[in-house]
């Protein structure tokens, strides 16, 4: 008989994805700002300033324990689609839907 599930191969994979560091840099009543650093194995680093408004948190944050977790998932989403050097240096989280209309659905499925 065939197994009902496929074996989990994530432990056997080597990944070239950058390491993601997130630090909340500012908190206001209606938004939070984050400094994100992406480190590659070759030592290259990019830095990004990301703003998460209260509206974006309410729109995209369902299923995430913290805004930091949402920001990390958002960067994983972006890194699956472009190189870290192609990610804007500064942006509002809601802007991702302009380039990737599926972001709203996809980010919910990653939670």
Task: Explain what you see.
This protein is of the alpha+beta class and 111 residues long. The protein has 4 helices and 4 strands, in the order βββααβαα. It has a 4-stranded mixed beta sheet with strand order 1-2-3-4. The longest helix is centred in the middle third of the chain and has 13 residues, at 67-79. It is globular, with a radius of gyration of 16 Å.
Strands, count = 4
Counting helices, strands and paired strands, the structural category is alpha+beta
Uncertain stretches: 1-14
Give the proportion of residues in helices.
25-40%
Radius of gyration: 16 Å
The percentage of residues in β strands lies in 25-35%
Strand order of the largest sheet: 1-2-3-4
Largest sheet: 4 strands, mixed
Q: What is the number of helical segments per DSSP (H or I, 4+ residues)? A: 4
Topology:
Layout: E1 19-27, E2 31-39, E3 45-53, H1 54-60, H2 67-79, E4 90-92, H3 96-99, H4 103-110
Parallel strand pairs: 3-4
Antiparallel strand pairs: 1-2, 2-3
What's this entry about, in short?
The protein has 111 residues and is an alpha+beta fold. Helix content is 29%, strand content 27%.
Features of the shown structure:
globular, 4-stranded mixed sheet, alpha+beta, 29% helix, single chain, 111 residues
């Amino acid at each position: 008989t065939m197994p009902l599930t496929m074996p989990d191969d994530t432990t056997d994979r080597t990944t070239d994805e950058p390491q993601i560091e997130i630090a909340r840099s500012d908190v206001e009543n209606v938004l939070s700002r984050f400094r994100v650093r992406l480190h590659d194995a070759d030592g290259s680093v990019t830095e990004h300033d990301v703003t998460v408004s209260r509206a974006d948190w309410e729109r995209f944050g369902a299923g995430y324990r913290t805004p930091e977790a949402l920001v990390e998932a958002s960067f994983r989403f972006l890194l699956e689609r472009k190189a870290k050097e192609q990610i804007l240096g500064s942006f509002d989280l809601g802007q991702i839907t302009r380039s990737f209309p599926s972001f709203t659905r996809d980010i919910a499925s990653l939670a």
